[in-house]
Design a protein that fits this description.
The protein has 337 residues and is α+β, with helices and mostly antiparallel strands. The chain is built from six helices and 13 strands. The strands form two sheets. Strands 1-4-5-3-2-13-12 form a seven-stranded mixed sheet. Strands 6-7-8-9-11-10 form a six-stranded mixed sheet, with helices on one face.
Length: 337
């Protein structure tokens, strides 16, 4: 009797062992923390020599070029991603910027056909330097959950910047993570980061803080905002600073408009994350109240550019009607005082 039970239980035991092995293997990283922060210099491309005239900086949650299919259980073809990359390249060729920062940009991911999207943008548009920080490095991400054919698979993704000015330093600051997430989901979840760049702009140091805040848990997002404010306070009274990126939140008094996501965990509704930033002394918003998401019919602002008016004059700010992502880019034209 015991032998029959043992034989009957063996397939179940083997299945459990296989699931545990896959869980630990798939959720492990392909690289090391030392490889998650890097700067790439492209020989033969010259830097800007000074900061005379009006400068342009752009922030874009590029959504790994997935358009409005971001996180949906579909598998778009290679041409779809190539077309979206071409749209970004064509815009930047016709409307050059001096600095561009990105969130959700893939460096070597199965879901976007293993194209290094930051390197492609930098080389095709002749930026002399690029800097990246990795926030998602997994051997296999089984999401969206069904069908398996649409799984993200191997992921190497994060935040990045291209610049026509030298990058003095590139730092990766990991922000607070959700407390109430299951250990299984946490194993595969991305880290939220602040990428801190110091640029040499005509002999002056410009600090650029590129952030991607939590989308699903408002309490976590608020903690991340407080962390970033602490970073900004170390710089704002002594150096020109620009804080920009995807803040994944609208002010608490914003009306709930059509198109808000319906998932129970999703929390794009109003909280005080943005208010904390809007009310911070010596930091101003380049543009408030102009929708940046979703790109097909924007009805809320999730992306912002903040700056220190003591050191920076904002000449204008505007969105760009691109549909390569589910966000649209935000651009600020500015001069240094």
């Amino acid at each position: 009797m015991s032998r029959r039970i043992l034989f009957a239980a063996t397939p179940l035991v083997l299945l459990l062992v296989a699931c545990a092995a896959f869980y630990y293997w798939a959720g492990s990283s392909r690289g090391t923390p030392a490889q998650w922060t890097s700067i790439y210099r492209y020989p033969g491309v010259r830097f800007h020599q000074d900061e005379t005239g009006i400068l342009k900086i752009m922030t874009y949650n590029i959504g790994y070029l997935s358009g409005m299919t971001n996180n949906l259980p579909v598998r778009m073809g290679h041409y779809f991603y190539s077309r979206n990359m071409s749209a970004v390249q064509d815009y930047l060729r016709g409307h050059p910027v001096d600095i561009a920062v990105f969130q959700e940009i893939d460096f070597n991911s199965h879901r976007s056909y293993r194209v290094d999207q930051l390197d492609t943008i930098a080389q095709s548009l002749e930026f002399p330097i690029a800097a990246r920080v990795v926030n998602w490095d997994k051997r296999y991400v089984p999401f969206p959950f069904w069908p398996p054919a649409v799984h993200f698979g191997p992921i190497l993704s994060g935040q990045g910047a291209v610049s026509r000015f030298p990058v003095i330093s590139n730092r990766r600051i990991q922000l607070a993570g959700p407390d109430n997430m299951s250990f299984i989901k946490k194993r595969f979840y991305l880290h939220r980061l602040a990428q801190i760049l110091e640029l040499d702009v005509g002999g002056r140091t410009l600090v650029v803080v590129n952030v991607h805040f939590e989308a699903f848990y408002s309490a976590t997002r608020r903690r991340q905002a407080l962390q970033v404010l602490d970073i900004c306070r170390k710089y704002k009274n002594r150096l020109p600073l620009i804080l920009l990126g995807d803040f994944n939140s609208v002010p608490p008094d914003a009306s709930r408009k059509k198109g808000f996501k319906d998932e129970p965990e999703q929390d794009y509704t109003g909280d005080d994350t943005i208010r904390l930033l809007l009310e911070e002394e010596d930091i101003a918003s380049a543009m408030t109240g102009t929708p940046t998401f979703p790109s097909e019919s924007p009805d809320r602002q999730l992306d912002y550019i903040f700056f220190t008016p003591r050191w920076i004059i904002c000449k204008s700010a505007y969105t760009v009607p691109l549909d390569s992502s589910d966000h649209v880019p935000l651009v600020m034209e500015f001069t240094l005082l």
